[in-house]
Specification:
200 residues, mainly alpha, 9 helices
């Protein structure tokens, strides 16, 4: 049953890229195909990142421990779509020119934010296996807190890119604030509880 559910989630996560490929093959990417691909892959990278961040709050609020099994998959799909987003920008806009890419990162702040968000996801994707979890021990948890910074940078990148703070950017920012706020409240409550126990 668990394996079947994972397969369903996996296939569902591939739907966005499948639709993009179909649109590309049928010439339905709009008047600016490159822009469409970049925006869609970026949006889905952010959506999957937020979904992965939502797993722990959902588990703690509802007690549905089964949802934790999807966190790694959702995080890896966030990295997958972020990689497609970065490659689409690098290929369509810069023709894979390394020098131009570096210059763009240094010259354009919103590109720098997006690139930083992507770079932070790289070690998280590489260390997402059970083997790395065992090797790193408690350090694994500390390392994977980089996802919070990546989420913040990704939201700022999106807001700066579209140059508006209405619609989707507001929704993504609000969801991120709620998710990070939940973690902050949880951490404070745990610290207070620990102090109370230590004082008894």
């Amino acid at each position: 049953m668990k394996r079947a559910a994972k397969v369903v989630v996996f296939l569902a996560a591939l739907v966005p890229v499948t639709l993009l490929v179909r649109a590309a093959l049928t010439g339905n990417l709009g008047v600016n195909p490159a822009e469409t691909v970049q925006l869609e892959t970026g949006r889905w990278a952010l959506k999957f990142l937020l979904l992965s961040l939502a797993i722990t709050p959902i588990r703690r609020i509802t007690g549905w421990n089964v949802v934790i099994q999807y966190r790694r998959m959702l995080g890896l799909f966030a990295f997958f779509y972020a990689t497609l987003h970065m490659l689409s920008y690098w290929s369509f806009d810069l023709a894979f020119a390394v020098g131009d890419f570096a210059a763009d990162v240094l010259r354009r702040p919103f590109i720098a934010l997006g690139f930083a968000a992507f770079v932070l996801l790289v070690p998280l994707a590489l260390t997402s296996t059970k083997g790395w979890i065992r090797r790193l021990g408690k350090k694994w948890t500390l390392l994977h807190r980089l996802v919070y910074a990546s989420g913040i940078l990704a939201v700022l990148h999106f807001i700066w890119k579209v140059k508006v703070f209405t619609g989707d950017p507001v929704i993504y920012a609000a969801i991120l604030i709620i998710l990070l706020g939940f973690r902050l409240i949880w951490a404070v409550r745990r610290r207070l509880a620990a102090k109370k126990v230590a004082g008894t």
